[in-house]
């Protein structure tokens, strides 16, 4: 039965398997490694684009090892599960520093590298070095469970033993790499999780689940993963052409990625965003421009929900058109008061002075204050803006002390430069709509 399975699988692979992937048949362990890491928790269709961009930017392990972390994270943006990216950088550096840039060729040695588990080590060892090691991923488990009619849960200790032993006994010792790729392709395209193509399957005559009609019941899982739900309010606090962001640094999800001013709550309705803003910004006036729908990102053990609230802090001396309602108490900024004083002076000039002075006065009075105002006014506005930025940064830092998000230090960055920072998938989805940029849309 086992020999039959392997023979038929290899024949199917040679004659009928049409699955095309850029890394198929690849012998370079570096490229195999990249593709396997990228495909963990990621659909092949999505992973292909990332793989091709990575190979172009970092064609060798040396290029990846010396690349700035910021650049690597940026290229990973949108792929999720960022610990993979962190381990990728770490292992690339280890390979260069301790192995002269070469991958070890034996399974056991490959397994010692950070971020490489039994599945990836078996893939690299068999594809690149022809070692007889069976890969065991979700596709392989499903095929084996159905073909042999094994109902032992795939995720408990006994099940793992059974499935690994069966997988090891099926592999073709003469072409382990080809066999491994074939069984993964077979699971992905024929013995699919839902609606498997049993009618076209070369294994159907011997397949236990098919013969006895319990395909849908296999494979069995002992426990379905319970995901913790988390709720984040993200405030996009804007001053002029800037918006506040910070880098996440704590022992939590999304380490080294950036985010906006963040507050975690117990649920979507637990606290109103307006109350959080008032508490955070104290007496500083602000305008709520919009509040988004709820965005959701699934992580392995968590389900993260996020709502985005776009907030503008009015600029001293007047800013761009504001379309929201001013909230929060506060006196007019210093520059506003100076504008009033200078405007008053120019009003007198405009009505009673000489023609040139009158023109200058009219320019200021017409509302084009920055263009027409004197250096004195511009300086006052600039210094007021700096004071305002400092004040908001301080308020945010103070508010952050009560926020166990594992991130520090908000900084004001230009909205046009946001594409240079790597954001989690959840934020990336919203960002693309609010601050579209050619650089970001490429991803
Ligand atoms: S017959 Fe159906 S269930 Fe059995 S191996 Fe083939 S596709 Fe999978």
Q: Indicate the mean pLDDT.
A: 82
> What is the subunit arrangement here?
single chain
- Looking at the structure, what is the overall shape? elongated
Look at the helices and sheets and give the structural class.
alpha+beta
Spatial extent as radius of gyration: 30 Å
Strand content: 5-15%
- What is the share of helical residues? 40-55%
CATH fold-type name of the largest domain:
Endonuclease III, domain 1
CATH class of the largest domain: Mainly Alpha
Low-confidence stretches: 329-372, 438-443
Count the DSSP helices: 19
CATH superfamily of the largest domain: Hypothetical protein, domain 2
| H/E element sequence | HHHHHHHHHHHHEEEEHEEEHHHHEHH
Name the hetero compounds present. Answer: iron/sulfur cluster
List keywords for this structure.
443 residues, Endonuclease III, domain 1, Nucleoside Triphosphate Pyrophosphohydrolase, 8 strands, disordered C terminus, binds iron/sulfur cluster
Q: What is the compact description of this entry?
A:
Helix content is 48%, strand content 14%.
Could you describe the 3D structure shown?
The protein is α+β, with helices and mostly antiparallel strands. The chain folds into two domains: 2-217, Orthogonal Bundle (Endonuclease III, domain 1), CATH 1.10.340.30; 228-331 and 382-441, Nucleoside Triphosphate Pyrophosphohydrolase (Alpha-Beta Complex). Helix content is 48%, strand content 14%. It contains 19 helices and eight strands. The protein is elongated, with a radius of gyration of 30 Å. The model is unreliable at 329-372 and 438-443 (pLDDT under 50).
């Amino acid at each position: 039965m086992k020999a039959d399975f392997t023979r038929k699988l290899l024949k199917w692979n040679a004659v009928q398997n049409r699955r095309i992937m850029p890394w198929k048949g690849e012998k370079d362990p570096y490229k195999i490694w990249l593709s396997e890491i990228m495909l963990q928790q990621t659909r092949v269709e999505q992973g292909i684009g990332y793989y091709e961009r990575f190979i172009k930017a970092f064609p060798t392990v040396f290029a990846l090892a010396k690349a700035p972390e910021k650049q690597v994270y940026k290229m990973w943006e949108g792929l999720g599960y960022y610990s993979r990216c962190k381990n990728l950088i770490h292992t690339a550096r280890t390979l260069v520093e301790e192995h002269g840039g070469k991958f070890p060729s034996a399974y056991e040695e490959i397994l010692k590298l950070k971020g490489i588990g039994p599945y990836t080590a078996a893939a690299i060892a068999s594809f690149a070095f022809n070692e007889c090691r069976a890969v065991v991923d979700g596709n392989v488990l499903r095929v084996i469970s159905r073909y042999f009619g094994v109902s032992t849960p795939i995720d408990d200790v006994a099940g793992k033993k059974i499935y690994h032993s069966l997988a090891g006994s099926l592999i073709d010792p003469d072409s382990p790499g080809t066999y491994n790729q074939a069984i993964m392709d077979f699971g992905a395209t024929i013995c699919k999780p839902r609606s498997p193509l049993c009618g076209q399957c070369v294994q159907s005559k011997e397949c236990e689940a098919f013969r006895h009609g319990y395909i849908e019941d296999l494979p069995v899982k002992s426990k379905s993963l319970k995901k913790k739900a988390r709720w984040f309010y993200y405030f996009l606090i804007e001053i002029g052409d800037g918006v506040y962001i910070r880098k996440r640094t704590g022992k939590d999800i999304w380490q080294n990625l950036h985010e906006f001013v963040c507050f975690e709550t117990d649920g979507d309705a637990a606290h109103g965003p307006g109350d959080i803003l008032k508490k955070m910004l104290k007496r500083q006036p602000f305008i709520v421009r919009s509040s988004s729908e709820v965005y959701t990102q699934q992580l392995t053990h968590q389900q993260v929900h996020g709502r985005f609230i776009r907030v503008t802090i009015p600029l001293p001396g007047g800013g761009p058109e504001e379309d929201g309602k001013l909230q929060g108490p506060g006196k007019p900024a210093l520059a506003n008061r100076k504008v009033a004083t200078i405007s008053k002076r120019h009003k007198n000039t405009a009505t009673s002075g000489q023609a040139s002075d009158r023109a200058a006065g009219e320019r200021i009075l017409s509302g084009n204050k920055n263009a027409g105002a004197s250096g004195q006014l511009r300086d006052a506005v600039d210094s007021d803006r700096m004071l305002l930025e400092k004040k908001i940064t301080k308020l945010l830092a103070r508010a952050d002390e009560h926020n166990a998000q594992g991130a520090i230090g908000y900084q004001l960055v230009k909205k046009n430069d946001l594409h240079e920072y790597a954001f989690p998938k959840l934020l990336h989805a919203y960002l693309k709509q609010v601050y579209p940029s050619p650089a970001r849309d490429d991803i």
